[in-house]
Amino acid sequence: MSDLSMLALIGVLSISCQWLAWRIKLPAILPLLICGLLLGPTLGLLEPDSLFEDLLFPFVSLAVAVILFEGSLTLKFEEIRGHGRMVTNLVSIGMLVTFVVIAILTHFIMGYGWEISALFGALVVVTGPTVIQPMIRSIRPINKLANILRWEGIIIDPLGALLAVLVYEFIIASQDVAFLHALQAFATTIALGFALGWGAARLLGLALGRGWFPHYLQNVATLTIVLGVFALSNAIQHESGLLTVTVMGMVMANTRNLNMEEILEFKETLSVLLISALFIILAARLDFAEFDALGMPAVILIAIILFAVRPLAVWLSAIGTELRFKDKVLLSWIAPRGIVAAAVSALFALKMEESGWTEAAAVVPLVFLVIMTTVVLQSLTAKPLARMLGLLEPQAKGFLIFGANQMARAVAKSIQESGIPVRLADTNWENIKLARMDNLPVYFGNPASEHAANNIDLTGLGQLLVMSPYKQLNPLVSMYYQDWFGSRKVHGLNGGEQDYRASHQLTESYRKTLNLFGDSVTYSKLASLHFKGAKIKSTPITDSFSFADYQQKYGTRALPMFALDDAEKLHIFTTERELIPQSGWTVIAMISAEPEENDVEQDNAERKE
């Protein structure tokens, strides 16, 4: 097979693995690693060193730089403070305990030097959102624990990367020099990384904020500048570039009034492509003999990491919190390693092997072994453990609403007042701001994006209502959540989409979702009713006041939307089935304002004519 064909095959397999992971709701790292191991050591079809030759090292270096920059863009310091003591402790006390204990264990169990042991300890402190989010969605633990695990993964991703880079920089600085000179070189690297990273972030933020780049060039300019700063930092101080771009991303993430949403989405897309290809290439470089060479000491080390180190970090982090014993047990078991550990370990190993560190070659298979063990074992056992502990989320009764406009907010408030969880998603910041003022949970952005996949909180939510005017996004969001919630749990407004559906030949599965509140109910109709003073009202149905009585009283003034049964389950009025609320239920409907007397006379006159 030619080199060009092999590169095309890597691209096709990368996307195929991502698609498979999405379908089976598992971390994408698993199919990517399996694919790489099949192509490389198993079948011998892919030999990255001969395929890329001298370009392998630069490709991996630049890819890791982009991955670290993109990851650090998600770290907002206010989020560390805003998610409780347990999350703060896990990404500080827990991370440091994990790092120190694993480094000591690696030194004595594996027999590695302190430098390599410390590097391995730093590499495996990170869980990361790309592996933890699919696992949380599959397990569905109670809301409190799901939030802790999700935010730990999001925040520790860039912090763990920064720790690994700092440890690596110190090891490189201390090679074959006196300790004092090592400290000086390390201090120079730290100073340059933070100074250049901060300066580049401020300059780029100023350029973006003042519109120095046209809109269509912002993403490409950002990528180019990041790679240029990475190369410049390395040219000034050997191996300081990774620290510089990590600091650069963190500074930009915490710069006020800097809108990074589009850039972050572009970087996420690029990172998915780079990570997918990188994992296949790195896994193909492995040799099964390297795993055999690790032997029983590696098995013992990984067992201690799973059953002792993580619980120790969780229990120490939980001091002073209100977590119960069983909460800490589940948190102790869920800590899969992922993206940062694999990508950064491979890069560092390549660099250190070139510098004469022979032990560095063993770091990559050991890290990959930790990744495979934690992801596979915890994916298979975490849900049964959560069920045994009674920590599974009850049946998801809540609603994700796409659209945070005035009408959607009114609907969301009526659902929330019924005791049903709700979350609004919108790409319009003003709508999101007004929803927050109404104390409604929100997500700002496209709920079908990669960022949403890692960040949106769907705990307790099991259905989607599409109530936005965005005709381009509505089909995308609907079809995205059909695969997550199920096709019968996604509902959108009908009528207003007719021309759009005809011109775009949308799928039959999407057409079936356009059944919300009735065939003639469109976004425009609801917005018009709400503008004219229609109110959403909850009315109990009793033995003496049946649903037929309700319909007779309100007639065409009532547009029934939901019915809350006596088991506190919310049913939706759709065109799919006839819904007849029973005694003990509550009907939630949009009630039009009483027509004034002259309006009634005019309507009667028009009918007579």
TrEMBL record:
It comes from Idiomarina rhizosphaerae. GO terms for cellular component: plasma membrane. Signal peptide: none annotated. Residues 399-486 form the RCK N-terminal domain. Keywords: Antiport, Cell membrane, Ion transport, Membrane, Transmembrane, Transmembrane helix, Transport. GO terms for biological process: potassium ion transport; proton transmembrane transport. Residues 14-386 form the Cation/H+ exchanger transmembrane domain. GO terms for molecular function: antiporter activity. It is a multi-pass membrane protein. It holds the Pfam family Na_H_Exchanger. This is Sodium:proton antiporter. It comes from the Bacteria.
